[in-house]
């Protein structure tokens, strides 16, 4: 099952604060909803264990995550691979980091996911809605964490 998403998140912080945040892999991983454990391997690679629930299918998924900030392109890309419960998830997401010119930033994001296994067979609409919420919540969490820390960066 292939899924595509897009949206925007307003961050109450300047782009410099957003760039500082996305270059810290543990802080980015902690933005995943229901994250239970994060193991950082280097500046761009980490593993995360996340509690997942889609319909009646619930359990822990383990993911390998790569965060690729590209300040020159004003973009951060994230690759997530892994799964659990006999299911596999491949997700590629990214956000253009847009300076609003007023001390705030817009994350203009997109995401593409491919899912296989029992989670994908739960039902397209349930899975589609849940995946949209998870991606959106991740960017909302980033916005909240960057915004709450930007006062200390100024």
Search tags:
alpha+beta, 7-stranded antiparallel sheet
Overview of the molecule:
- This protein has about 150 residues and is of the alpha+beta class.
- The chain is about 30% helix and about 50% strand.
- It contains four helices and seven strands.
Mean pLDDT across the residues is 83
Helical element count? 4
**SS-derived structural category:** alpha+beta
Percent range for helical residues? 25-40%
Question: In what range is the share of β-strand residues?
Answer: over 45%
Per DSSP E runs of 2 or more residues, the count of β-strands stands at 7
Taken from the alpha-carbon principal axes, the silhouette is globular
Topology:
Blueprint: E1 2-11, H1 15-22, H2 25-29, E2 35-40, E3 45-54, E4 57-70, E5 75-84, E6 87-99, E7 105-116, H3 118-121, H4 124-153
Antiparallel strand pairs: 1-7, 2-3, 3-4, 4-5, 5-6, 6-7
Q: Could you give a quick summary of the protein structure above?
A:
This protein is α+β, with helices and mostly antiparallel strands and 154 residues long. 31% of the residues lie in helices and 49% in strands.
């Amino acid at each position: 099952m292939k899924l595509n998403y897009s949206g925007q998140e307003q961050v109450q912080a300047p782009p410099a604060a957003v760039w500082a945040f996305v270059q810290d892999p543990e802080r980015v991983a902690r933005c995943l909803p229901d994250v239970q454990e994060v193991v950082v391997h280097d500046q761009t690679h980490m593993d995360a264990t996340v509690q997942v629930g889609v319909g009646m299918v619930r359990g822990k998924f383990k993911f390998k995550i790569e965060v690729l900030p590209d300040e020159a392109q004003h973009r951060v890309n994230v690759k997530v691979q892994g799964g659990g419960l006999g299911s596999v998830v491949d997700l590629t997401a990214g956000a253009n980091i847009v300076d609003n010119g007023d001390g705030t930033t817009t994350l203009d994001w997109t995401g593409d996911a491919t899912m296989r296994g029992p989670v994908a067979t739960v039902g397209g609409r349930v899975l589609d809605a849940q995946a949209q919420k998870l991606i959106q919540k991740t960017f909302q969490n980033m916005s909240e964490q960057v915004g709450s820390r930007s006062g200390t960066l100024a």
